Structure formats: structure tokens, C-alpha cells
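Worked example

This section walks through a single chain of length 331. The input is the sequence exactly as stored; nothing has been trimmed or padded.
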Amino acid sequence: MRNRTIKAFLIAIVLTAGVSTFWTAETNEIDGDDAAEIVASEGAATGMAEDAGAAATEETPKKKGNRFARFFKAPFKAVGKLFNGNDDNKVRRMSEKDAAKFESAPLMRVDDSVTPLEKSTGDGGGTAKDYLARGRRMFDEGRLNEAIKELSRAVSLDSHLSEAHNLLAVAYDRKGLHERARESFERALDHETDAQTLNNLGYSLYLNGNYRAAIARLKRAAKLAPTDERIWNNLALAQCRLGKYDEAYRSFARSGGEYQGRLNVAAMLERAGREEQAIEHYEAARRLQPASEFVLRRLVELYARNGHGDKAEQAHRTLAVQANEQIASKE
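Given that input, the structure is written out below as C-alpha cells.
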């Protein structure tokens, strides 16, 4: 009986903390951000692209559906972890001491008419691109520590290999070594000003709360790749963090169009507790798509919560009419 009482008390604490966390403005994951996940739940690309110079299409959102429902599931997942122990399959943080083990000893390479540019190490490891290929494979398999070792050798053999610097930075970032990640991103940019590397550096800065620097990098990336949806979404997220919601709307709209831009900014404003402004964007979205059930439901809730009883009732009646029409069309 005593154990059950203690567990019930712990569950209550976790649930309370979990729900309140949803509305905070802090980054709360090593490799992600709840604001980014809200945007990604609608099918928009956010975050880092693993390939420098490649189109940002490989990191598609893994989850879709109701953008808010998933965040209220988080406390229950936390309860499971509390009583079921740690998940050994999760990626663990790596310390600076661990990372130091992967640093390669300085190598001397002679570039002349006789010596090939990509000289083998003589230990059977191959060229810089061989190390890069192995590092990428390990990265894709989630073996981040081994990937870091291979990629570190790649950049020590060829310091101009921007792709290796970029992927090494992403691996560092996923391990929580953000300063090392920033240094690797900067090294990649020293050799090639690439939109995706700028995007990755900008997103890393964003996750670490350096929003102004993030915006500067992401704006440069957007100039280089003006049709890249991921870059515009990341820029909008950083702009939201600084309260620049009008600019964020324009960035979201560049990515997914006016309607999606309105929805994304409305969600960010709700998240920040600025519900009256969120209502304005939902109303603008409704003018674009009057029959949107999602928008109507959000407006019903926000109207009711902010003292707009008449508008809430009107929106509720519109929902009821639409539901009846859908039933009638199926008969």
C-alpha cells in the first residue's frame, strides 16, 4: 500500500511537470526542439540536413497528425521511464573527454606532381574519402562514436573535405557536444560556403539558444538556396524565439504557403501564451480555407478561453453544420 502511494505521488509530479513543460520556451531535447516538432507534425521539414550541398529532403518528419496531442503524451512516456528503467537503445551524451579519444594525431601530407592528393595512410585505412564513406555508413547506422572516429581521420587527411566536416559536426551535435559541432561547421564553411552547412550551423545555434547568430546564418543560407523549405522553417523558428512573429510568418509562408504559414505562427503564438495574436492568425487561415475543421476547433477553444463567447458559439455551430453535411453526403 505504501509503495502504491509513493508511486502515485511520483506519477502526479511527473504529469504536472510534463504538461507545464509544453508551454515553456526552452529547448528540451538533445537532438530536437518541441517548437520544431510542432511544425514538423504538419509535414514540414525542419532541422539539419546531413549532406552538405544536397537538397534538404532526407529529414522528413516522422510524425504527423494533431500537433498538440503528442505533447500531452510526453508525461506518460516519462512515467514509463520512471518505473521501467533506462532504455539502453537511446543515444547517450558523450563527454569532451570521450571526444578527445577520437582526435587523430597530426598527419603530414606532401602535395606535389608525384604524390597523389588523396594519399593512403599506409595502415590499410585508405584515403580521406574512404574514411568519409565509412563514417557516413556508421552515422546512418546510429553508431555515432565510431562515426566520429572515422570522420575525424577523414578531415585530418584532407582538411578541405567540407562534406566530412559537416557530417562530423552533425554527429557532434547529436552527442550534445555543441561547441565542437560549431567548430566543425565553421571549418566546413572555411572551405566552401554551402547552404546546407549554413543551415546546419544555424539550427545548432538555435538549439543552443543563440537565436540572433542562428538567424544570421540561416538568412545567408536562404539567399543561397531560396527555395529550400527546411531553411525557411528553421529561420522562422529562430525568429519566433525572438518574438519576431511577423517575420516568422513570412518565412513560414515562403516554405509552405500562406495558409500553412498562418497555422505555424498561430501554433507558436499559442505555445508562447499569446492567444489573442494566435486567434488573428487562425482567423486569417480560416479566410483562406473556411471549411477547415482543425482551424474551427482551435478557434472554438481559444474564443471560449479568451472571453469571446459569441464567436465561440458561432464557430461551434459552423462545425455542427459541417458535420451534418458530411453525414448526409455519406447516406
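What to look for: The longest helix spans residues 309-330.
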